[in-house]
């Protein structure tokens, strides 16, 4: 296991984590250049559409320490940089900029003209189509005309081919061999994406390394298991699960914004997990006057010297190879379960016996994620802490009790690839063959079947040495088995508590069972999702779903639509309150279950930390009264100010994030965690349509906002509901009193032109009275059904 390194990339959202992962895949050769695409590890269409990482993504990479460096360079100086490193990274940056602005599909001449302008924009000296002499035995025998020579050091050759292969590379290598230049970049604006190959001719001019050096180089190969993680606070549970499966972390800081809120949150979580942390500042290819200050802030945050903070560009690849070398150098090899159960020397004989039994149970893995496959059943993403797992092994999940025979094991490269086994310390997947989502629980321990059966076989009677009755032995065996099960379990994850509850109701062709099945499948890849049955008079049966925040809800709803083709309506978001009613305390999740006049109400509170540049401080503090934010402390943190405060959880779902981003021009960020509860001044707001309460529109509102919320809702309903033969009273009610009302008048039937052209007006009056009597009969039987379209409009944010 000494050559294995397991690590994660953690950062605030939009810091370049996925782009850094792309460069690592490219540098290690895990993904071929012609197959490379931006955000390669982001598999969901929604991730690419929104430009954010939603799901953690594991990948296995192989890395040679001398990869990308000539053998002679490695032999003379193992710490040496790539040949013309800074210059080539700038050239790559220019090529990526052209690709970004022009796209693909143009002729080679178009890209040549664009790159000419971009090289000038970046201040690079170059010569276009210069004649380069080709020499043989010191005599010039011909010439070669590359597209560019940059800095009088690097040849740049452009192509616009579907892909570049060995012939193009070898041709360029031959040109280098006959000229005075050592390095060339073969840049291909291909059919799928930009492809850049680095061609070096250097080793043929120098003495050939000894065979022993070549053998040493060939023998050193590291297995790098990377997990790319989300950056938004709503998906912090994804980060926490990844941290339990690794030994190290790269803390990535955006060089344009510096330390942000989720940077702090992820760092604290990594430290709690006992990980080795390597710091890096990204986007250093840009002209950043604040970069020295950000690097100093990062060094202070991590408690290291400034030269230990890596300056990288995930876009161009600058510094990424050196960052990988630092991961290999600093991050320790995988720990085993035995590592955390040492120091048995001073234990009692019974405890020592238990430890010995543990050492005899090697096959143990932690489940940190899962995925459903139509053919292989549920794929469990695992980290093997002890022993190994192979296809055909009989195993069990300790918590769920599910027993099965492994159908297949393999690695993520980054697509799933079958292998003979998953060894100790490695990260991979296990094809369970199970079809029931409840059987696979995130955080569960996977054990070899013989090990899992062991607790039932452990006899405490064997340890005592004295006779006992059958009843005594049975009790001791049961207690021993429970202790063994607890000892076998790997440290998993705490169950996450949802903070926002929203009801989902089937719509269109979607049925209740379709919605339930979709949520069960979604929970396989979203362990924080919780749900229970719900019902509504107007919308029928549905599911009450718990989320970790507003973005978590939006992503889950989009995935249900895109991945499972479901149609549904959603209710207003709500939170859980604790109420005292008739001397009984209970937790209320459904607004319609909220008592009319409770004695006391407690609401959940959150501790919030806001990171904001000093120039936006007053604007952010202006939100205090709007969102009941109590500011506790303001302190300096590098380039920003850190505001610590406390506020009701209910205020968080009232557009707090959007308003804060708006007043700070997008520079402010925040993190929060639950922080107890406080008495709340809230009431239940009900909407009454023609005498009937519409349960789906009921919600819990602060008393100060009751009239505004109630009036806005009935006014909106008046716009949406069609006229009927009778008048429709729309009312907002709270604590038994009407706080707002609107009326939709009844339709009037045209009664002709009585009274005109000599007609008898008394006839018209008769018809009016008859119509009025009919409307009164209709009014007494009136009942209005709100259509799904009306609900959809009224529930829009």
Automatic annotation (TrEMBL):
Q: Where is this region: Disordered?
A: 334-359, 459-480
Q: Which residues form the Tr-type G domain?
A: 2-335
Source domain of life: Bacteria
Q: Does the keyword Hydrolase apply?
A: yes
Q: Where is the composition biased (Polar residues)?
A: 338-359
Mind telling me which PANTHER family this protein's record contains? TRANSLATION FACTOR GUF1 HOMOLOG, CHLOROPLASTIC, TRANSLATION FACTOR GUF1-RELATED
By sequence similarity, the record places it as follows: Belongs to the TRAFAC class translation factor GTPase superfamily. Classic translation factor GTPase family. LepA subfamily.
Q: What is this protein called?
A: Tr-type G domain-containing protein
Q: Lineage of the source organism?
A: Bacteria, Candidatus Liptoniibacteriota
């Amino acid at each position: 296991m000494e050559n294995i390194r397991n690590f994660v990339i953690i950062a605030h959202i939009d810091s370049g984590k996925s782009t850094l992962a792309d460069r690592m895949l490219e540098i290690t050769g895990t993904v071929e250049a012609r197959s490379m695409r931006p955000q390669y590890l982001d598999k969901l269409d929604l991730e690419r559409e929104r430009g954010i990482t939603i799901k953690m993504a594991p990948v296995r990479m192989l890395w040679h320490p001398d990869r990308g460096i000539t053998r002679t360079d490695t032999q003379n100086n193992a710490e040496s940089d790539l040949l013309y490193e800074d210059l080539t990274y700038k050239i790559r940056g220019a090529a990526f900029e052209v690709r970004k602005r022009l796209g693909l599909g143009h002729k080679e001449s178009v890209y040549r003209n664009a790159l000419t302008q971009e090289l000038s924009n970046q201040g690079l000296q170059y010569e276009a189509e210069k004649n380069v002499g080709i020499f043989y035995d010191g005599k010039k025998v011909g010439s070669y005309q590359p597209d560019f020579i940059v800095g009088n050091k690097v040849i740049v050759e452009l192509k616009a081919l579907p892909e570049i292969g060995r012939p193009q590379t070898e041709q360029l290598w031959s040109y280098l061999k006959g000229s005075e230049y050592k390095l060339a970049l073969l840049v291909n604006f291909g059919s799928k994406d930009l492809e850049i190959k680095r061609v070096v001719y250097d080793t043929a001019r120098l003495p050939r390394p000894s065979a022993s050096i070549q053998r040493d180089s060939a023998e050193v190969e590291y297995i790098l298991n990377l997990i790319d993680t989300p950056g938004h606070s709503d998906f912090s549970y994804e980060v926490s699960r990844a941290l339990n499966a690794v030994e190290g972390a790269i803390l990535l800081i955006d060089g344009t914004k510096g330390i942000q809120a989720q940077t702090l949150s992820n760092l604290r979580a990594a430290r709690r997990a006992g990980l080795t942390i390597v710091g890096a500042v990204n986007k250093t290819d840009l002209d950043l006057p604040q970069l020295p200050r950000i690097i100093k802030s990062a060094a202070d945050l991590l408690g290291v010297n400034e030269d230990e903070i890596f300056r990288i560009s995930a876009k161009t690849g600058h510094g990424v190879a050196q960052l990988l070398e630092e991961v290999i150098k600093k991050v320790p090899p995988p720990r085993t379960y035995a590592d955390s159960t040492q120091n048995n020397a001073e234990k009692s004989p019974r405890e020592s016996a238990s430890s010995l039994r543990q050492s005899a149970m090697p096959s143990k893995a932690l489940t940190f994620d899962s995925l459903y496959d139509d053919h292989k059943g549920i794929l469990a993403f695992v980290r093997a802490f002890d022993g190994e797992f192979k296809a055909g092994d009989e195993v069990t999940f300790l918590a769920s009790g599910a027993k099965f025979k492994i159908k297949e094991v393999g690695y993520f490269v980054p697509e799933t690839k079958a292998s003979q086994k998953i060894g100790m310390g490695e990260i991979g997947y296990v094809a369970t063959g199970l079809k029931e989502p409840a059987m696979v629980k995130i955080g569960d321990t996977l054990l070899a079947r013989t090990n899992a059966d062991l607790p039932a076989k452990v006899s405490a009677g064997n340890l005592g040495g004295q006779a006992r009755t059958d009843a005594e032995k049975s009790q001791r065996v049961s207690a021993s088995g429970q202790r063994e099960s607890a000892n076998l379990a790997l440290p998993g994850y705490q169950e996450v508590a949802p903070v926002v509850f929203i009801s989902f109701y089937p719509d269109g062709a979607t049925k209740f069972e379709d919605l339930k099945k979709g949520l069960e499948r979604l929970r396989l890849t979203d362990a924080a999702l919780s749900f229970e049955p719900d019902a509504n008079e107007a919308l029928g049966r549905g599911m009450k779903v718990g989320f970790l925040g507003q973005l978590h809800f939006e992503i889950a709803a989009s995935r249900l639509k895109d991945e499972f083709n479901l149609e549904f309506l959603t209710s207003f978001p709500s939170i859980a309150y604790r109420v005292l009613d008739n001397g009984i305390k209970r937790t209320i999740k459904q607004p319609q279950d909220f008592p009319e006049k409770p004695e006391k109400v407690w609401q959940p509170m959150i501790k919030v930390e806001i990171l904001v540049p000093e120039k936006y401080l007053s604007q952010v503090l202006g939100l205090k009264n709007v969102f009941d934010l109590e500011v506790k402390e303001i302190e300096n943190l590098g380039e920003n100010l850190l505001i610590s405060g406390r506020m009701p959880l209910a205020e968080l779902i009232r557009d707090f994030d959007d308003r804060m981003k708006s007043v700070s021009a997008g520079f402010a960020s925040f993190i929060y965690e639950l922080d107890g509860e406080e008495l709340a001044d809230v009431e239940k707001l009900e909407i009454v349509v023609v005498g009937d309460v519409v349960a789906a529109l009921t919600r819990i509102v602060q008393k100060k906002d009751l009239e505004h919320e109630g009036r806005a809702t009935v006014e909106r309903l008046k716009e949406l509901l069609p006229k009927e033969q009778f008048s429709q009273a729309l009312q907002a009610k709270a604590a038994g009193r009407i706080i707002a009302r609107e009326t939709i008048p009844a339709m009037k039937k045209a009664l002709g032109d009585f009274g005109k052209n000599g007609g008898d007006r008394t006839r018209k009056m008769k018809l009016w009275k008859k119509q009025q009597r009919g409307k009164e009969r209709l009014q007494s039987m009136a009942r209005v059904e709100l259509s799904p379209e009306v609900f959809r409009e009224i529930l829009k944010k």
